[in-house]
Amino acid sequence: MKETDKPQRKETDHPEQYKTENKTLFERYKSEQTVDPIPMEDLKKERREEKQKHKTKQDSASEENYK
Questions:
Q1: Where in the chain are the domains?
Q2: Cβ-contact 59, 45 below 8 angstroms
Q3: How far is it, in rounded angstroms, from Cα 28 to Cα 43?
Q4: What is the C-alpha to C-alpha distance for residues 29 and 23, in angstroms, rounded to an integer?
Q5: How sure is the predictor about 20, in pLDDT bands with cuts at 50, 70 and 90?
């Protein structure tokens, strides 16, 4: 197969690289760019539970949130 027979690869492989008038999701939500997606309370609770391996899980963050 010749090199000329191969399909040409586009320079923009990802849809967000296409030029449009619309703002990208990254541009649209500036306030969300530095938000941690993991709730810190849940993360702290998980770390504490990992340190206490001999105990069973006694409390749940989701139960506390929905009381």
A1: 23-54
A2: yes
A3: 28
A4: 10
A5: confident
Pair 33, 26: CB distance under 8 Å? yes
CA nearest to 48, candidates 57, 39, 36: 57
Cα(36)–Cα(39) distance, rounded to whole angstroms?
7
C-alpha 53/C-alpha 3 separation (Å) is 60
pTM above threshold 0.70:
no
Q: Determine the residue type at 14.
A: H
DSSP 27: H
Please, are residues 44 and 63 in contact by the beta-carbon 8 Å criterion?
Answer: no
